[in-house]
Design goal:
mainly alpha, disordered C terminus
Length: about 210
């Protein structure tokens, strides 16, 4: 019996996973041991550690939300595929922005650039999310609005972070961290899935998440 070819959804997810893995690897390779065998030398790596940690969390959140959303896409449109590639383009710039910010100890322009990158990356994610949700019948109009409001709130915070970074880099960086906290759970909240299951309308969680 002939094997079925992988679906477009599976191929899109697999390619995205591979890109995320490469991005994390590149960022990890930027962490180099200190020249001095002392605690002072180790502590001197704080800009690199802080920058890497925040960027790593960002990539983890992007992957989690992407994985969760793809469970609601049975047949990706051409527009969705291009939005995914556009999203990955901006994500692929993260190692550069992270390294620049770390090397300059969170200097003014690098932090501004870093925050702006978060804005455009999250903006592209919002378009990606909207494309999936509007082609899915898994959610009611009210649930759709709830999900989109949460995503747009995070985008607004990233935009605020970019503006604040023009005046004070540390404030902008701090707001970026706050915005990331909004995405620690998938943008499709679990309570929506549980509510639909409770009414017998949702079926199994299409993302496969427990």
């Amino acid at each position: 019996m002939a094997k079925r070819a992988p679906s477009t959804t599976s191929r899109l997810s697999a390619y995205t996973d591979a890109v995320f893995a490469v991005i994390i690897t590149i960022m990890a390779l930027e962490i180099r041991p200190p020249d001095s065998p002392t605690l002072a030398g180790l502590f001197s790596l704080w800009p690199t550690v802080v920058s890497y940690a925040v960027s790593y969390v960002f990539v983890a959140i992007i992957w989690m939300n992407h994985h969760y959303l793809m469970g609601y896409s049975s047949a990706p449109t051409v527009r969705l595929i291009w939005l995914n590639f556009g999203h990955l383009f901006f994500v692929s710039l993260l190692p550069f922005a992270t390294s620049w910010m770390a090397d300059t100890e969170l200097a003014h322009l690098p932090v501004i650039t870093y925050a702006i990158l978060f804005v455009v990356t999250d903006g592209m994610y919002n378009l990606f999310e909207r494309e999936i949700l509007r082609h899915s019948d898994a959610f009611t109009p009210r649930e759709y609005v709830t999900i989109r409001r949460r995503s747009l709130a995070a985008l607004a915070l990233f935009t605020l972070a970019a503006i604040a970074a023009f005046f004070e880099p540390w404030v902008g960086f701090g707001i970026v961290c706050v915005a990331l906290a909004l995405h620690l759970r998938p943008d499709v909240p679990r309570w929506l899935i549980r509510a639909r299951r409770g009414h017998g309308a949702g079926g199994d969680d299409p993302s496969g998440a427990e």
